[in-house]
Design a protein that fits this description.
By secondary structure, the protein is an alpha/beta fold. It contains 12 helices and 12 strands. Strand 1, helix 1 and strand 2 form a beta-alpha-beta unit. About 30% of the residues are buried.
Length: about 325
């Protein structure tokens, strides 16, 4: 009899689907995926839109949120009992929906991409889960979560590059730090492609950053990374865990510049490949830029590759 696994989470630009794709390759697993995604909600007419507005104002009910919860609940009930339900960002779901998940699986598991400090509701919903994974070391220490990093989902080894530095991020508090770093890179005469996404064309401009209005898919981002030598990552102030940028750098054999000081404590850390900088006092040695990438031991990389990453979570080892 096949093990039944359901993945639930936001589309997350395509990252979530890599977990599904990996499990799909395992013969003894029957896997399904459902997205927590309000973007598929459509108003039936203008009256429906007005109704949603009034419900939010007077009763605190949001039809878009209700819609996404109903899809998840109905989908799980239609599938029947599961061996594992693995939910990413469960704080986006209502308690009633989380109760349905808990009653529908032998093992109801959550993976917290972000810290409880950033999304406090994650602390309120802990009783709904048998196990919670997190990559935030502070949350692990406080709440006793199981440690789980992100994963390598794609690999390449392109040594020729069109530009030295690459970064893509949303327009937020990192903008000024990125602008400062991009100016530093430009003043050094190094090439770069540093993209900042914002849907509004009227936001502040930068001589050194490229403002884009359309969201890029994971596959598009990976293509851009492949043609760079060094990937840049500016860490969020409320995040200790390693972002996907780190694992994308590992997968594509790229050097990395990051503001995440904790990265030095990981087994793949190599100062020839990874440079930790202070965004307030930027210094990038020329030797770091000019020396080649030093391949990471395969035994270390294996731990983070998605096909191996899923095994301990679902007892597939």
């Amino acid at each position: 009899m096949k093990m039944k696994i359901t993945i639930i989470g936001p589309p997350a630009f395509g990252y979530t689907k890599y977990i599904y794709d990996s499990l799909k390759k395992i013969e003894q697993v029957e896997v399904n995926i459902f997205y927590i995604d309000r973007s598929t909600f459509k108003y039936k007419n203008k009256a429906h839109k007005i109704k949603n507005f009034l419900l939010k104002i007077f009763f605190g009910v949001n039809l878009k949120k209700k819609y996404q919860d109903d899809i998840v609940k109905d989908s799980i009930k239609a599938l029947g009992g599961q061996d594992f339900i693995f939910t990413i960002r469960p704080d986006l779901l209502k308690n009633k929906t989380l109760a349905v998940l808990k009653s529908s699986a032998k093992h109801n598991i959550a993976f917290y991409y972000d810290s409880i400090t950033r999304f406090s509701r994650k602390g309120d919903i802990l009783p709904y889960f048998d196990k919670v994974y997190s990559y935030d070391k502070e949350d692990i220490e406080v709440h006793g979560f199981d440690f789980l990093t992100n994963y390598i989902y794609q690999e390449s080894n392109i040594t020729q590059h069109e530009y030295i530095f690459f970064n893509i991020s949303s327009y937020d508090f990192r903008f000024k730090s990125l602008d400062k770093l991009a100016k530093y890179i430009n003043d050094k005469g190094w090439s770069s492609k540093i993209l900042v996404h914002h849907p509004d064309e009227s936001i502040e401009k930068s001589e050194y950053l490229e403002i884009i209005n359309q969201i890029k898919s994971v596959s598009e981002i990976n293509d851009l990374m492949k043609h760079s030598k060094i990937i840049i990552e500016i860490q969020r102030n409320d995040q200790i865990g390693l972002s996907f940028r780190i694992f994308e750098a590992l997968g594509h054999n790229k050097k990395l510049i990051t503001t995440n000081k904790d990265i030095v404590n990981y087994d793949f850390y190599n100062p020839q490949n990874i440079l930790v900088i202070d965004e307030n006092y930027i210094e990038i040695p020329e030797d770091f830029v000019n020396t080649p990438y030093q391949p990471v031991d395969e035994a270390i990389l294996d731990k983070y590759r998605i096909d191996n990453w899923v095994k301990p979570i679902f007892n597939l080892e």
